[in-house]
Amino acid sequence: MRMQPNVQFDGQPVPEGSGPAAIELSEASVTFGRGDRAVPALSKTSLRIADGEFVALVGPSGCGKSTILRLVSGLVQPTGGVVIVGGREVAAQALRVGMAFQNPTMLPWMTIERNIMLPLKIVEPFRSDFRRLRKTEFRDKANALLEQVGLKGFGSRFPWQLSGGMLQRANLCRALIHEPRLLLLDEPFGALDQFTREELWAILQDLWMTHKPTVLLVTHDLREAGFLASRICVMSARPGRILDDSRVDFARPRTVAMTFEPDFVALNQKLRAFIEDARGAAEQGAG
Amino acid sequence: MSGIDIRQKAWSAGLIVLFFVGWELFCLATGMSDLVLPRPSQVFVTLYQRFPVLWPHIVQTLATTMFGFVLGVALGVALGAIIGVSKTAYDTCYPLLIGFSSIPKVAVVPIFVLWFGSGTVPAVLTALSICFFPIVVNIATGLATTEPELEDVLKALGASKFDILWNVGLPRTMPFFFASLKVAISYAFVGAVLSETVASNRGLGNVMMTASSNFNVPLVFASLFVLAALGVALYVVFSLIEGRVTGWATRKNDVIAT
Questions:
Q1: Distance between CA atoms of A118 and B167, rounded to whole angstroms?
Q2: Fewer Cβ in 10 A, N or C end of chain B?
Q3: Which helix (H) or strand (E) element contains residue A131?
Q4: How far is the CA of A189 from the CAs of A38, A116, A218, A222, B190, in angstroms?
């Protein structure tokens, strides 16, 4: 069910299924609990995401979007099927992916700069050099990212001195500091007001276009998905599965003005219809 | 410091002065015998005159308190870390801990005396056993309240349990830890004096027992004053340390609006 098969994205032809797969879910399913209490969170799902793609997962709440994210990050093991990330099966092996949630979770006793450098303290090869480089190279790295998200000069502030939108920008910096190939975002802008959110879309787009990680974004906001993603997967209600998988080929960099153009509105309405169907089906199923 | 702050402090100081003046006047007005309730002025004079005699006992009580406190902190942190990291350990250990903590410590002193003889050892152990519980609870709570999202972020980076504990868990418990130190040092002090009162030939607790059996009531009160002063001093020291180490937890209202 592709909106436009084999479309251009970012001006480059991306033939379907080509290129190295960054993420590959084959019939992956997740069930929480056992026996009578077993709750299926994700029914057999297959999904292939190419390196450098920006994929948005949308769907009714509680549909297993976050479960896919946790599967890919290795925080949850599949009950059935296989999850391959970066050419390896997700197992105990750490993937060093960048993650950001709705709650920015900056550590209150550290400056923003040091908060952002936290992954460098954990992940090799940075870890070994952390003591040596934290005052020079790593700090410059953190400040370069801060500058890119419009927080120049805020590195020495403490988290409580920043607004919610600023903290979320810092959160994106922390997710990217160790140059992950994979960025997992779970409703990162859910708690922000509309204007701040739109501002952050542009920032995230900019970050993605410069660093080119593979991004998996879970969101409720269809405009957000349309603005940011190069591909949108719509999921059904719990237990989740993928109903629709569409490419989004609006030219980049995209702007907020673009989100009011007829093509974008049409995409939005199409996604909306899918989700309404999914919600309706879920209610019938429950009733 | 704001004007309101200074005024508040002045009121507090005034109340303390008023308390002693009232006490003095009450004794003078009723002609109270100093065998029952000595006047504060008498107590201060006794304190001044007997200070050389009291001094070694003060040192003894302080040393016992600190020793018991340090052991209690070490034990409390270790146990708190264990039960704070693991939910299973928390649920398993909690009932037993509650059981131990609800035993009145005065009832334990005779057992310590039975095992170790009278003197310093039971005092140290009483201080330890009375002060370690608030530390365990606070460390465990601090560790258990680490944000799950942050834990996920770090786990996805490949952080070990120790990495998370070291970089996030332990710093997060610091405000809880220092808050509990203030309480624990007061408890340790109470424990040490308690044990000295029951079974020891040294320390302020013992001085008070001896003085009261000799009907030297002003000396009893003088010791009481010293105890109060020491208790306040220890509390203040740990409050100051707390303020310096965990200033981030008492955040100020200097938010930058955007």
A1: 8
A2: N
A3: helix A126-133
A4: 31, 18, 10, 13, 52
Whether the predicted model's global pTM rises above the 0.95 cut: no
A167 vs A103: CA distance, rounded Å: 9
Question: Is B148 in CB contact (< 8 Å) with chain A?
Answer: no
Task: For residue A160, list chain B residues with Cβ-Cβ distance below 8 A.
Answer: 251, 255
Q: Are A6 and A16 in contact (CB under 8 A)?
A: yes
Between the two ends of chain A, the Cα-to-Cα distance in Å is 28
- Residue B156 is nearest to which of A99, A102, A163, comparing CB atoms? A99
Query: What tens-digit pLDDT sequence spans chain B (258 residues)?
Result: 566 788 888 999 999 999 999 999 999 999 888 888 899 998 999 999 989 988 999 999 999 999 999 999 999 988 888 888 777 888 888 888 888 888 888 888 888 888 988 878 888 998 998 888 889 888 888 888 778 888 888 888 888 888 888 888 888 888 888 888 888 888 898 889 888 888 878 888 888 888 988 888 999 999 999 988 988 898 888 888 887 777 666 654 444 433
Contact B158 A158 (CB under 8 A): no
Rg over alpha carbons for chain A, rounded to the nearest Å, is 19
Q: Cβ–Cβ of A122/B152 closer than 8 Å?
A: no
* Residue B245 contacts A, CB cutoff 8 Å: no
Residues A14 and A2: their CA atoms lie apart, in Å, by 14
From chain A, the residues in CB contact with B161 under 8 A are: none
B19 touching chain A per CB within 8 A: no
Q: Which residue of chain A is at minimal alpha-carbon distance from B175?
A: A109
Q: What is the largest CA-CA distance in chain B?
A: 76
